[in-house]
UniProtKB/TrEMBL annotation:
Domain called SWIM-type: residue spans: 163-200
Keywords: Metal-binding, Zinc, Zinc-finger
Domain of life (superkingdom): Eukaryota
Alphabetized PANTHER family for the sequence: ZINC FINGER SWIM DOMAIN CONTAINING PROTEIN 4, 5, 6, ZINC FINGER SWIM DOMAIN-CONTAINING PROTEIN 6
One annotated Gene Ontology cellular component of this protein: Cul2-RING ubiquitin ligase complex
InterPro entries tied to this protein: Znf_SWIM (IPR007527), ZSWIM4-8_C (IPR048370)
A Pfam family the protein falls into: ZSWIM4-8_C
Species, as recorded: Amphiprion ocellaris (Clown anemonefish)
Gene from which this protein is expressed: ZSWIM6
GO molecular function: zinc ion binding
Name this protein carries in UniProt: SWIM-type domain-containing protein
Length: 1110
């Protein structure tokens, strides 16, 4: 709390003209302690003596009456009575002091030390430590004012600090605090805590004086003058200017100070008009909230704001008026957040954590306006505030969608008949709309009053009035109200410190939900044939209870579980009517809410909230240990959910855009499986539906309860959480597969459900992998049925992704082959036989067939020779089929796979030759040609190389082209085969290659060795080097010289000075080639002269040419 060093102004004027000298005599106590005599110590007394009537009366007056009213009521108040009133006016409980000095709940802070380092730094903990260390001194209570000094010992980094602390109080509440430490915070500092706790724990050690005005009344003129002069002398530097100013005003007859009867007294207590509330530094609250908001979620600011909201709830629970006051300050800062306008202008959504803070803000205002003991004028004030905030343009909307004009079926409806879900005229609802609407609610209904005030309120004549809507058939009270609104009442009762009343209303609401569920079941059973025949339904629940802004189901669940937790009877507190446990009520309530068929709301935030709220409820349920009683409830609710038709998310008739039940069903499945496996599977299989992804409703098939109702069949809804929902669907399926291991019938049923309801290939692939892992656990033999399920799912994935792009496709193919290997040789043979429906030709040859024919597969399958040959034949057949379909990508793999079968290999080679003329490029042909040479077929390699050359075209400047190495290899191969082969390939080279450096390299290589030197047939080797003056090298030499000439002219067209030296080197290489001809010297000289003449404008370059070449 920001402590101000200046004293607070006096609250009222004090004057006692009725007192005379006789009254004052004997009343002057020099230094009586705060507690007085032992007989009058009250709660502070260490004896067992009964309280005096004086103390009892004084304590009641001190709690309820402002002291001014006491003075006005009685002409004379004896000094002992004043002392006891003043004594009892200080707070006697540490809980409130703790609440105003720490984030944690007061009840958790009453110990003398904290367990964690953070707790020890809380002002309340530090204050206790200072008190117990004897650091509080000079404690004096003057009337309604407490002062003292608190010494904080020196540390390694801080010197000793002596703080002057003063506290004003009234009617058992601290109304003002000041401390010289200068600490600025929302909460009281440790020094204020230490002084306050000193007064609470050691009242008998505190010196007590009456208000200073009473002491002054007892002084004569000389004493008053001496008192004033001494006071000025002691504090002359601080008070002398003020004292002189006051003296001047008093001496002036017309001054304002002389127009007022009496004088202010800061120690005299509160006036009649003063509000009685604990001190709350509004400025610091605003500054802290503004700081947290400005940090934008960083540095734990969201956590700090949530702690502030918790503090508001704590204040409300203590029925402290500062709760609403603090929330008002927080709301003002939230509304002033500049990011709101920025987000609205940019059309972007606020962050999820920030959005949750706004939700909590709206829920807290709902609690405040629903305070059952709120005065009408106070509620009117809050309503005006809420309307003002609600009217601000940037006020966040309840569903989180800025500017959305679409109807939102999750918005609250008035407490009347359901509205039209197709209406597009719905006004925007802000986070404050519900609180504004709640201002119209009241607590005056007699039935409601009976419910919340009586433990055994029943209809004793229920057997004569079975149709009563106020009681169920057993006579228990019901409360018919819009469920979220009714639950908001429960939350308000809990928040304002009325736990028993909240519990009674909760039980009435739960009984109402049960009765409603029973009536819905009866209604559906009556019209079941008609509904199933028509195959249509209306949206029965326009507003979801799970994911609702007011969290109705969570409120009911928490209320019942908190009652269980605080019970003195052990883990199970019981229903006041028939001994039913509150735990069973809580669990049943959660199951009813989670099983409600409800429409998926619009907007990302609202949809995420549905998922988040469901997961939070399920997490709470998982903390409850199931016993026989709870299992019966699970069974009962599971049957209800399966048979309740359109009212249940697990019913036979499902609205197309209903929230899926996958997560809930997974919890039900795992809970019921050990107790009722058949029911568990019925629930899980029914929940596998995801109708929003279905294009049409299966209306003809009435044998299975999977009717899907599409009110808007042509509109694909914007489900932002669809990926998460599909993941949950996948997890449900995986859970069933795991549980069904070893049961072929159930596995088959689960497989059919997966194939029918899951539409994502990645999720089906995950399921296939999961099934494979479960089936092949190391500690047991493989489950062949589960393996086949895994394979079947894998095959479905292959078919789904065959014609679509999927970055995991190669992984999927490899996994499928592994899975088929585990299943057996028949599975491998099957996928190869039907490869065209599962794989691309490339996948089939490079992955499937190659893996099948690998040694590791043969070893893994323990195949005999006959089986190996059959599998190899299938693989070769596959390879040839793939090569025919896609020779460009599969020919090489086909040749590799067919190496050991002469006929198959020849067939693959012929496929390559047929495709070479049209469908294959030079890179593919060169690759296959090199493979042929490697396998010992040089003539076939030569043939393929010549075919590749016909597709190649290298221009003059492509001297780094990747095909150059292939060209050089082809020429070397031709040269090695003999003169005839070389003569045949050179015309192709001349035609395809225009790059001078490449041609010169080929020419040089051909002149170094004799053709056919490395040929297999020695007759091809003539033993002589080939002449450059005869064919075929003469043709290559002329082409090379021509290429140099053309390249030179091309380079000179756009040459820059920085490339001159590189060009000169190029000409040097050209000269080497020219000189290989018998008249090359003359040709090169003519070439240079020609250059000098044509490019004489490039003087510097020509000068370099002359220097090098003359």
């Amino acid at each position: 709390m920001a402590e101000r060093v200046q004293q607070p102004p006096a609250k009222r004027l004090c004057c006692r003209p009725g007192y005379g000298a006789t009254c004052r005599q004997g009343q002057r106590a020099a230094g009586a302690l705060c507690g007085g005599s032992a007989a009058t110590q009250g709660e502070s007394s260490r004896t067992q003596s009964p309280e005096s009537l004086l103390d009892i009366a004084a304590r009641k007056v001190a709690e309820k009456w402002p002291f001014q009213r006491v003075e006005e009521r009685f002409e004379r108040i004896p000094e002992p009575v004043q002392r006891r009133i003043v004594y009892w006016s200080f707070p006697r409980s540490e809980r409130e002091i703790c609440m105003y000095s720490s984030f944690n709940t007061g009840g958790e802070e009453l110990g003398s030390s904290g367990e964690s380092g953070d707790e020890t730094r809380l002002p309340f903990r530090r204050g206790i430590a200072l008190l117990e260390s004897g650091c509080v001194d000079n404690v004096l209570q003057v009337g309604f004012h407490l002062s003292g000094t608190v010494r904080e010992p020196a540390t390694s980094s801080e010197p000793e600090l002596l703080s002057n602390v003063s506290v004003s109080f009234d009617r058992c509440k601290i109304t003002a605090v000041t401390c010289s430490c200068g600490n600025k915070d929302i909460f009281y500092c440790a020094h204020v805590v230490a002084l306050s706790l000193y007064r609470v724990r050691k009242p008998e050690q505190v010196r007590l004086r009456l208000p200073i005005s009473e002491t002054l009344f007892q002084m004569n003129r000389d004493q008053l003058q001496k008192f004033v002069q001494y006071l000025i002398t002691v504090h002359h530097t601080e008070v002398l200017p003020t004292a002189q100013k006051l003296a001047d005003e008093i001496l002036s007859q017309n001054s304002e100070i002389n127009q007022v009867h009496g004088a202010p007294d800061p120690t005299a207590g509160a006036s009649v008009d003063d509000e009685n509330c604990w001190h709350l530094d509004e400025e610091q609250v605003q500054e802290q909230v503004k700081l947290f908001l400005s940090q934008g979620g960083y540095h734990g600011s969201g956590k700090q704001l949530n702690l502030l909201f918790s503090k508001v709830r704590e204040m409300l629970k203590m029925r402290d008026s500062n709760g609403a006051r603090m929330l008002t300050l927080i709301t003002e800062q939230f509304m002033g957040d500049p990011r709101l306008a920025l987000w609205r202008q940019q059309g972007t959504a606020m962050t999820d954590k920030y959005r949750q803070l706004w939700d909590e803000l709206g829920a807290l205002w709902m609690c405040i306006v629903l305070n059952p003991h709120c005065k009408a004028e106070q509620k009117g004030f809050w309503l005006r505030q809420l309307r003002r905030w609600n009217g601000v343009d940037v006020c966040p909307l309840e569903d989180g969608n800025h500017g959305s004009e679409l109807t939102n079926l999750t918005n609250a409806l008035p407490q009347g008949p359901p509205g039209n879900p197709d209406s597009l005229t719905r006004p925007h609802r802000t986070v404050f709309t519900r609180a504004i609407e709640a201002c119209d609610l009241h607590w005056l209904d007699p039935h409601l009053q009976h419910i919340i005030t009586e433990d055994h309120y029943t209809n004793y004549c229920y057997h004569d009035n079975l149709d009563s809507s106020l009681f169920d058939a057993r006579g228990w009270p019901l409360w018919h109200e819009h469920v979220p609104t009714a639950c908001a009442r429960v939350d308000a009762l809990r928040s304002h410190g009325y736990p028993k009343e909240a519990l009674r209303l909760t039980i009435a609401i739960v009984n109402t939900l049960r009765r409603q569920q029973q009536k819905q079941l009866e209604l559906f059973c009556t019209h079941k044939k008609e509904l199933l025949h028509r195959g249509i339904t209306s949206v029965t629940n326009l507003e979801s209870w799970v994911g609702h802004p007011l969290d109705p189901i969570g409120t009911l669940f928490s209320t019942l579980m908190e009652t269980r937790g605080g019970s003195e009877e052990g883990n199970y507190s019981h229903h006041p009517y028939d001994g039913e446990s509150f735990v069973s009520l809580a669990v049943e309530t959660a199951l009813i809410g989670l099983g409600q068929q409800r429409v998926m709301p619009d907007g990302l935030y609202a949809q995420e909230k549905v998922c988040r709220n469901e997961e939070q409820l399920l997490a709470k349920l998982q903390e409850v240990e199931l016993d026989d009683t709870l299992v019966k409830i699970f069974r009962k609710q599971a049957v209800f959910l399966l048979e309740a038709g359109p009212y249940s998310g697990l019913g036979e008739i499902l609205y197309r855009e209903s929230v899926p039940m996958h997560t809930f069903a997974k919890y039900l499945f795992t809970s019921l499986l050990p107790h009722d496996a058949e029911l568990a599977y019925r629930i899980a299989l029914r929940a596998m539906r995801l109708p929003v992804l279905e294009s049409t409703a299966p209306s003809a098939d009435l044998s299975r309860p999977h009717h899907i109702v599409s009110v808007v069949p042509n509109r694909y809804p914007r489900w932002f959480t669809l990926s998460h929902i599909e993941t949950q669907q996948c997890e449900l399926a995986s859970t069933m597969l795991t549980a069904a291991k070893g049961d072929p019938r159930k596995l088959e049923t689960v497989l059919e459900s997966i194939q029918k309801n899951i539409h994502s290939s990645s999720h089906i692939f995950k399921l296939a992998q999961d099934a494979f892992k479960i089936a092949t656990l190391m500690d047991s033999l493989p489950d062949i049925t589960l393996l086949k399920v895994s394979l079947e799912l894998g095959l479905q994935v292959m078919r789904m992704t065959l014609s679509t792009l999927n970055w995991r496709r190669r992984e999927m193919v490899r996994w499928l082959v592994t899975c088929a290997t585990e299943v057996g040789v028949f599975a491998l043979d099957s996928i190869m036989q039907s490869w065209f429906t599962l794989f691309t030709p490339t996948e089939a040859t490079s992955v499937v067939a190659s893996t099948v024919m690998s040694n590791s597969t043969i070893v893994r399958l323990h195949l005999d020779c006959h089986q190996q040959e059959n599998l190899a034949n299938s693989a070769r057949t596959l390879a040839l089929q793939c090569a025919m379909k896609d020779p460009q990508n599969c020919a090489l793999s086909a040749l590799t796979l067919c190496e050991k079968d002469h006929i198959a290999f020849e067939t693959a080679y012929q496929i390559v030759l047929d495709a070479a003329a049209t469908g294959m490029n030079y890179t593919q042909l060169f690759t296959i040609a090199r493979y042929m040479e490697h396998r010992g077929y040089p003539m076939r390699a030569y043939k393929l190389a010549t075919l590749a050359m016909t597709h190649l075209n290298l221009s003059y400047n492509q001297d780094t082209h990747p095909a150059i190495n292939d060209v050089l290899w082809a020429c070397a191969l031709s040269h090695s085969l003999g003169k005839n082969e070389l003569a045949a390939v050179i015309p192709l080279v001349v035609k395809s290659v225009k790059c001078a450096t490449v041609l010169s390299d080929i020419l040089r290589r051909c002149t170094l060795t004799t053709p056919g030197m490395v040929a297999l047939h020695s007759r091809r080797n003539s033993g002589k080097l080939m002449s450059l003056e005869k064919a075929p090298l003469r043709q290559l030499l002329d082409a090379t010289i021509g290429a140099y000439i053309n390249t030179t002219h091309s380079r000179l067209t756009h040459i820059s000075p920085r490339h001159y030296s590189e060009f000169i080197e190029f000409l040097s290489k050209a000269r080497e080639t020219f000189l290989m001809a018998h008249d090359g010297h003359i040709q090169f000289t003519q070439f240079i002269d020609n250059l000098k003449q044509i490019y004489k404008g490039k003087k510097k370059l020509m000068m370099l040419v002359r220097e090098r070449f003359g």
